[in-house]
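Exercise (ungraded).
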Amino acid sequence: MALIGAALLFLSACGGDDTANSTDGATSDLSGPLTVFAAASLTDVFIELGETFMAQNPGIEVRFNFGPSSGLSRQINEGAPADVFASANISQMAVVSEAGNADGEPTVFVENVLQIAAPAGNPAGITGIADFANADLTLAICAPEVPCGVAAATVFEAAGITPSVDSLEEDVRAALTKVELGEVDAALVYVTDVIAAGSAVEGIDFPETLEAVTSYPIVTLSAAPNPDAGQLFVEFILSEVGTAALEEAGFRSP
Amino acid sequence: MSLSAAIGLQRGSLRLDVELRVEPGQVLVLLGPNGAGKSTVLRVLAGLLPPDTGRVALGHLVLDEPAAGIHVPPYERPIGMVFQEYLLFPHMSTVDNVAFGLRSRRVPKAQAREAARHWLERVGLSTSAKSKPGVLSGGQAQRVALARALIGSPELLLLDEPLAALDARTKLEVRADLRRHLSEYSGPTIVVSHDPIDAMALADEVAVIEHGRVVQSGPPAEVARRPRTDYVARLMGLSLLAGTGEGAQVRLESGVSVSVAEPASGSVYVAIRPEAVAIYPTEPHGSPRNVWPARLASATPHGSAVRCDLTGPVPLTADLTATAFAELGLAPGSEVWATVKAHEVEVYAR
Amino acid sequence: MTDPGFLEDPEATAAPTRPRPGRRTLARRSARTGTRIPLALLLPAIIGTAILVLPLVGLLIRAPWSDLLVRLAEPEVGQALRLSLITASMATVVSMFFGIPIAWVLARSNIRGRSILRALVTVPLVLPPVVGGVALFLVLGRRGIIGSWLYETFGFSLPFTTAAVVIAETFVAMPFLIISVEGALRAADARFEDAAATLGAGGWSTFRRVTLPLVAPGIAAGAVLCWARALGEFGATITFAGNFPGSTQTMPLAVYLALQNDPQAAIVLSLVLLAVSLATLTLLRERWLTRA
């Protein structure tokens, strides 16, 4: 009994120590809602980080808006009230910067690369990017209008193959659904998405993926309703805690 | 082929129990108040409603026999039916409407249309061949409906209130026309109507249906003269009284006696036509044996006469000329005396 | 006064001066007399119209008129438009083929479980189209309940084909047709079918020669609704049929994707779709849709 009690004390002290000694996300007097617009591929990891951030900063209520970066950048430029913008590519961030809505220079906080996603068990026996030229296979990639589609085009060029795909999906989620259902033999999505999809999907690496590295910038916005909290959040994302969580999700450090 | 039908049917609160027999060339008019079941009988004969019990046969052809599991659907029955609102197909021209029955039998279009045109001529509507039913008058529509029903040479003709949708003036013409067509038709005909004049004009035989049963049947003149129910009596405008015959007198249930010309005995009905009743302001003393006090309950115009409802020991309906009514200075509530000649009283067994 | 010789009959209903057994359009009459619209109806009608029309006006104002023609000439535009029109029309035909019999069963038959059938028929109306698309996968996809048999037996898989587009559009649009036609059948006078039966026409013959022509305007109205819905369908199509220019990229898909990085192109595509739809719908004369 006493041993358990001592163990609990020890653990809570450790927990307390961590928060007391941490240099990131220090308890502050800031409060209020914090609105973060973030690319869809950041959904799971940002929600998790958001919980941690709110635990460290009880007064702040983090509200996320996840979606395609192009849609988010447009919303920001149309005046949607947001404090932070984390984009899945440089060009959509540029759309915001050029409109004068970014507060300062954006910082690239992670990178993402493509990975081949196949249904669990890899029934079609996909081995590499060259399989995407196989007309007998049912294949999906992102549409060229979205960033992961642009990346796909780059890797195909680097691999020197002409892809024979059956569908150009409007976002990664749609592509992954088809993989999970086993309706496509393989899809080209981000490595982070494959990890997030869990056991239903198998990831297959291919060397050419390093030819198309997608950089994710983050910035506070100039029209932020809660700029201080926004700044705090960005620092939190860039901190060790943030970086660790992002790496665990499959992102690469820049 | 003659029609013989015994129909038993329970439908909601209506319990139908009817037996009919109609010979070829004969016209039976089913007369009765709304809800009596007359249209239901027609629907059963048409095959649109299977009976619960009974048997319907046209000659040797059994159309319905629930006990044996026989029910011939309407489209396999050799019948022709004219519906109350004619139900001419609005999307087809008149000639196509009439030709419909033949086209159903796979008669080629040209041939069917030719026959239809011939029938339209017969009913006097050859000019309306191409028109749509919507532009036809009531009388014209009725004739088209009849042609449509007859073109297939049906073995049984059914007409549901064929004149009900017409105004009074058109009715007269159309009724006469209908009578002519029915006499030309060789099979049995059943006409449903609530109008006693239809019965008089068209029927060879009348069957009065009340509450799902035939309460009286016979030639129209007979039914008109000797009604057996209040409904028929009222229909004909007759005063109907029940009593017991005692020779030259009939003692009514109220105790009053009616003098009659022919001796009668046993349970009898006494029927008096409205024009046989004379009204006096004071007690008359003359030849009529039947003189009773009465009070005028109501008076309504009825054709060129005034129909008076008299209450008293002998309730009567009397028809007076408008002049006489005015001259007597009568008004509802007036105390009068009514007389009826013994010869004018119709007595018959109950 | 009453006509001579007309026996008084208290039991009989007086023969009313009925309107002729045909049809007098109320619409015609009010157009002639110019019925005034009550203010209580006029005001919401105006506001409602504004809500419907203003977004379209917005599109027109923001359209890149200067390079409109250049954009319109791009091959993807014509491709997507052609595909949209063809698949929507095919979906309408399929919907009519299956939907009219279903509507007949719902309106005219006496079988038990009609209310369940009606509820099932309206499911696509309340289901989010993307969910509908996933559901179609589960049945007709390569690993689907029926689709797997198709794939194993014929080597044929439905997803990512133009046929899949038609199926997805039919799934979402057919309920509109069914509901319209059921309504029309219920409103139609069933007694005409009795009359046809007494004239020797059996079930199918009556349906073909009497019922169908009588409800044709209702069917036409339902088909228009169905076509419009199919034309605008996005979620189920992109999920089940995927997206590939020429075979499965319909206009709505093209618009959505264009919006990702070229909003101007999206506006152009939207305007094209709008123009084609409006042209088609206005060509459908009103009299074909009301009781003819």
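Further reading is listed at the end of the chapter. For now, observe: The longest helix of chain C spans residues 75-108. Chain C has 14 helices and no strands.
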